[in-house]
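Something for you to look into today, if you have time. Just paste the record in under my message, thanks.
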Amino acid sequence: MLKELDPADCFPPHDNRPITDEDVADLVEDYQRNGQLQPGIVCPHPDLPGKWLVIAGGRRGHACRIARILFRAEVRDTIPSQAEIIEIRVGENSKRKNLDAFQLCNDITTYKKEKRFTTWAEAGKALGIPASTLSSITCVRRIPPELRPKTERLCGTVVRTIARMPTRADMEELIAKAFDENDQPIPKDRVELLAKQMKEGNKSGRKPRGFTVKDGGHEAVIKPKPGVSTEDIAKWLEGLAAKLKANKHLPPDGLRFLFP
C-alpha cells in the first residue's frame, strides 16, 4: 500500500552509509520541479515506535526532506529479517541502477554471511544477479578504505572503473582526475577514456599516440601525455595561440626561441 509519510519519521538502516545533502542535490532539484515519481519501500521501525525503517529509497527520502515534500513509499506491514531487507533493497535498487556502489557491495557481502553461503556465486544466484554483474559489483572491494571518502561522491560506473585500475597509485591518480577544477565529478565517459589511456600508457614499451594537424603549408605534431583529455588539449592550444599572437612581430623561424 502506498502512503505519503513525513520524511522526518523515516530512518535508513543503521548500517547504511550516511547520506549527505550533496549526495541528493540532483534529486532535490528534480523533486522541486516534478515531485517524487518513484516511491520507496518502508516497514515499521523495530526500535522506534511510530517511525518507519526505509528498506529501499533512502536517497529519495532524504531528498524529500530537503525539498519539504512528503515521502511516497510502499508500506510493508511486517518487519523483514536482515536477509529479506537486503533481498528487497538489492533487487529494487539493482533494477533502478542507482544504489551506492559500496553500499550495494556491502549488502551482498552481508547477505552472503547471513545466508551462510560459501561462494559468491551462491549469493548471486539467490539474489537473481548474473555472474558478470556480481563480479562488477564486488570489484569495488579492491579500493582501499582510505580512498573511499572521495570515491563515494562518484557514480557507481565510475567507482567500478576506478576499482579495475591495476595498482593503488593508478586508482589515486584516476580519482584525482575524476574531478574538475571546481571539485565536481566529470562525466563518466571521460573517466572511462582517462582510465583506458592510463592503462595503455602503463603497458611496457608503448608510447602515447600523437596526431598530426595539417593546414595548407603548415604542419604540427601533437603528442598528448597519458590521461590528457581533448578539453585539456583545447585549453593548451588556446594558451599557445595567445602566446603566438602576443609575439606576432617575430618571424616564423624565430618562434623556436619561445619554446625552448
